[in-house]
Request: fold
Amino acid sequence: MNSLACARGGRRAVSTFLTLLFVICPGTRLAVLAQTPAADAQPTPAPTPSAGFRLERTPVAGGAELLTVFGQLPGSSANEQAQRVVTGERQDAAPDVPLVTILRDTLGDGQRENDRLRYVWMHTYTRPGAGQRAAAAVPFLYNRVGNKQGESRRVPPPVVDLSATDHEVWQKLFWSALQTILIDPTGVVVKAATRTYRRNVTDYRKAHVIRALAILSLYEAESGTPSVFSPGELNEIQARLMLTQKTFGGIVDDIYLQRVYQQQTTQWLDTRGHNWELLRQQAEANNLVFEPLELPDGSATHALLWVARADLEANGARPFKGRFLNIDNPWNDRRLRKWQGYAETRYFDADNRPCAPDAPGARAVELIPLALYGLDHPKIPILLVDFRDTLNPKQREMSRRVLEDVARNVLAVSRFDLPYLLGRTVYDYVTDKRGMDLNQTSRLRAYSQLKLLLSLDASLDPELRTEVSRRLEYVSLNPLENDRAAEVQLARAQYEALLDYARRPDGLPAQLDRDRRAEIVSLKHTRTEQTLFRVANLLSFGLYTHREEATPAEQAAALDVERQLAYHRHFLREVARTSARVEVQWEIADVRRALEYVAAHGARADAKTAKAVARIFASTQDEATRRLCLSSLYRINKETAKDALARIYRDEAQDARWRTLSADYLRRAAGEQQRIAPATAKLIAAMDGQ
Amino acid sequence: MSSGLTQYFSHSRQTCVGRRLHCARRRATRLARLLGVLSVCYLLPTAYCLLTSAQARRVVIIKVDGLPGAEVDRYVRERDPRTGKSALPWIEHIFYQGGTRVENFYVRGMSLSGPSWSMLDTGQHLHIKGNVEFDRLTLHTYDYLNFIPFWVENVGRRRVDMPGPETLDEIGVPLLFDTYANGERHMGFQTFQRGARWTTLQNALTNYFTTRAPEELFDEWTLGFGGRNMVMEQLQRELIQKIADPRYRYLDFYTTEFDHATHHNRDRATHLAALQALDQYVGRVWTAIEKSPVAADTALVVVSDHGTNSDERYYSQGYNLVKLLGSADGGGHHVVTKRRLLNDYALKGIYPLVPLITTTTPDSFYLKGQSTDYPTALIDFDGNERAGIHLRDSDLNLLHILLLELQRKDLAADLRRAATEAFFAALDRRRPEWQRTLEELREETAALHKLIERQAALVAAQPKKWTKADQDAGRDKEALRQFARLDSWRGDERDYTEYTRTLANLLALRRETFEPAHINIPDVLAKGAMGDRNTVFELQNYVAGLAPGGLKLTPAGALDMGRSFKRVDYPALLRAVAVRNNVQPGLDTHPVDFVATQIPAETLRLSVSDPNMRADDCVWLYRGEESQALLLARRERGDKISLRFVPVAHLRQNADGTLSFERLAWRADLPLKIWEDAQLVLPAGAERAAWLSDWHTDLEWLRALHLTEYSNGLVGLHEEFAHFDTPAIAADVPDLTRDEQLLRRFRRRQRALIETDLFVHASDHWNFDVRGFNPGGNHGSFRRVSTHATLMFAGGANTGVPRGLAVSEPYDSLSFVPTVLTLTGRMSAPGAAVAAGFAGQPAQFPGRVIAELFTGPRAPPRSVAAGTAENAH
Reply:
């Protein structure tokens, strides 16, 4: 009995320790930053003028640059505008706010092939305050508890490290295992608290990833001049951000990134278009007024529904079909008859098109807002603001959370418990098929985008904007969220902190150095060793990371080759994957250049590169390219490469020159003791026997 | 020719010596001219023969649903910054530089997949008039695009062909691939598909998993497996495998990926991605052809059935015609569709064998609670930019309403008497016509019954087991096809017999023995039958129900036909529809652009005396009271069609059947907006009003109109409404037995019964899709953006396909099959008959062969990017 109590106590102590560790952990990652000085970080605007966005480049000592997207936020709060009066800023100018920063490690040269994109900072994403953290761990507290207190002078946490997305996957798996094996058995309270906290942290980050994506997409759409990002680079950043939403997204092969970006964007635009049309038709069927709200690039991500005050009297007995709209019947609603809230007078011409008040035939219509919907939600527009019933969207928002939290945290039902699984699957299917937004998991996107829209859309009446903002903050379930005004301040403060960090020798330059030393690990250690280092990193909760010792010159030389090889590998794989005949689809000089690099420096290239090169050989008729393919296969020190040469040698349909050249390369490879599969080795021996 | 030369020389010998020099000069000139004429007369056919002797021994056709010619052209000319090449490098390489493209290739008819592929696959005039067709008497549906019932019935060995080929077989129209033997052809899965290949589905699954490395599969799983991709991938793989086998002489592949993408998304990136996927596949097919042993003799063709109206600036807005017809103002109809409304949001939507969907209205005037027994409207909204509406014969409504009133026990005696009179007046008015229908249908079903007996014997005699050789030759499929025909005919016999039973009962009603209380209405008015098509008079005065006050009498004691019934003027109603939410600048507030309906030639003949207005076909276009037109057509010897467009206003049909209308001078804002269109191309020197007012052949209209906003809509409207004979249903064929004549008449009747009352054409960027939403874009209209399709040819050295040739002469869907037949040497000369179909019956094709493909200059490839942007506008 006693020993049992002791054991239980010990388990509690462990779980308490782990919980504390868990709460602290997200902050620990950047607390171990390096401390080498550098101080040449002065922002220079890049030549990317656009309507609402601009890009600023800030050099970082040690060979990197910060690329920051700034946005003009006409939708700043009244507080902010008052602050601008105090600071003497121009009143007519929209405030310029840093939104997203990306670190590009250039190795200090102008060569694009050896650049590597690393951290993405969303400046409204911050470390939560202590109160927010505590609230985030309280189960069933589906509410904001206020903004982060005090000005943030710490370096903001990045939302993603583009060069190490796999770390995130392993961490996710590690924490899931920890939660299930160690924390959950300790009791309902700890289990519920930790799970709630993790979920809030995840959702908070997701929301900012979504906004980062939206901003990059807007920047891409608005940027009229050559971008500082290479062709496809911006898409790849966005694809990596998109993949953060999937459990194993971080380890998806780079070759899929274009496809991920394209498919996801297509799907989102498809959803948006469907919802736009569904809402317009529902508005039409119910004699309501539909108004899409557009982001600066002209894409409508949200929409308002209004009712004309004059129609309330005329349509008293009109039936209301509220399916998909999820609001009360306006025609018999007494609140609307006595409406004192926000209303607007708009003007319409004879064809019901919105027009100026002085347009010929313009008629004035007083409109009362009914609801605001997000259009980026699967199947149906999602209700975000109900102007008559603030609780309505909140209840819809909470429904799934409550269901899950009770089932998982209180009743301790496993996700794979058969009756629960079946029941939930049927319920999910039916509500999803019928188009009910009670049960959707992607509210976050619509909610996050609305916050962005409120900041960026200059066409919204300030009073309406304030009204929507106020109601929207109420809908938020996440105690870690800050309100819009606080986020603007946070963004500025965190950007300043980041610039300061970039200027300090022990700041970003030192971090860069550590990252590069970590990057070299893969060049110096076997796969097994690398796996062991990763395990050590996970078990120490990120406190230990193995890095190689190397002088800056050694680092630069090693990384230059490795990164360029990775660049050309990616290019060659893309060429091989898409081309039935290379020279038709690609500039053959570019392909040759990539092959030349592999032929010169490709000893460390992997099997996938070898396969790509072999495929290019098969799908080109260009002599020089074919020659380079064989040379590359010889250079790549992998069995796959030699197998490919052997296949060419054995292929009697091939021209004799290529077979002879392949044989020569195979002999040379054997002489150099390269990696060769036994079957290929036998073939080489047989060739020599001839 | 030689006698002309003799005369010439004999004449020259008689000239006087003094004028010898002068004469010699003249003679030389005339001789040169004559030789010129001779050489033209002799050399052109020779050149044609020589060039057509350079033939493709086989053809690979990539059929792309909804690929707009303009969009392909735009992206071919764009440079991809990543590659430095065209955004569609293979299409540029194969067709723009190494082949021939037809820059102005159009759908003839609606830009709608079912009908359009039926023309492209047969080379014959339009017989299939919608993606879905309803038989007005039996409510049998021809659902040409729904492949699920086909596959299900194929498992049960009840069907071997998709509904399209079945319908075409019935009327004796062979498909292009029918000209090839079973072992010579390989087809993809498509709308007009013969046979089902289950191995493709099986291999799709296994190959998907066996051709990928484990890590690739893991990534695919993370990103989401796509079942649709698996099948497409397998179909692509199979085509490439078959290309390597020289025994296959006809290969095709059908894809709807681009069409689906444009329905959903309007953005450039989505369209380009879909096109690039197609481009890469075209590249793989081309390289497979190049590697095949008969590369030099193989032609590759890319063809599409229509364009698509997708614009990055607009969402395509839907308008719900089902709701309109169900509303009190719309007539309170219970509406039948073949597509489930909001299918994606309905639990029932998961059921793949879609039955007839009835949308019940609470606003029905006299059929509340009887929606499944008595729907009164059928809508085919497939095609989206156009809808086809069938309304129940207005007189059937009238009889139905009066019967219901007469069955009331509380009906006043004077009203009862008047209603009885009105009932028999209406019945007697229609009696001769219905009596004729009844007798004819009885004759036809009797002939059908005999056919069924013969067919049953044939089916019973079929072997039960098939050898491998039989299967390879397709004999097992042919046997199954015979069974499918039998099954279909039995269904026809049952359904039409039931209809004739009720019609006979109705016609048997007599004043003297009339006891309405004892009549069971379904015994005299067939459930689910729409009856005959409505006349213009009926469409303008459609009886939808009782008037709010019920039956009314005239002072003379007769039933007041004007005040007793709720009547609807459908053309006016549809055009007047306006929406409240018009948030996209530039879009019309009226979703309906115009409506069209057919006017029988006899009606026109009764109404107009002007011989220049005589026509074999007439279509009325309504865009408002002041904006209407009559499209007149004359069929002359052979396949010559002459068309005339007559602007009119205030057209009404009187109760006696005569038409009255005002003739208008040509002006702007008429249906099809021809007058004001800056792209109208008239022959040199032609005066606009005079030329437009005259009769012209379909080809002359095509040349004049194809670049305008409505493109060849004028020709297309005629195609949509006209009835065309086929060798298997033509009446004037000698030596037919009586039964054969009756069966031919029966098939003609069946095709006529699917014709709608109203053709509704949407305004720009509007659609009528209510199954779901198609905000990305739509097609189905006559707008050029929707009718302008793609046609490109390329081939090996022996095929003679010119390189780098862009044909600017406009052609339409009818040209596709004869051109391919000429290219492959199956058509010896333009207009020659070709042995086609199962029985090898000779078939003739009305379309023009694309002559430039055979006589065009072998120009060197030209730089595409430097060319003009888009040929058309």
Notes: Confidence is low (pLDDT under 50) at residues 1-7, 13-40, 47-51, 82-93 of chain A.
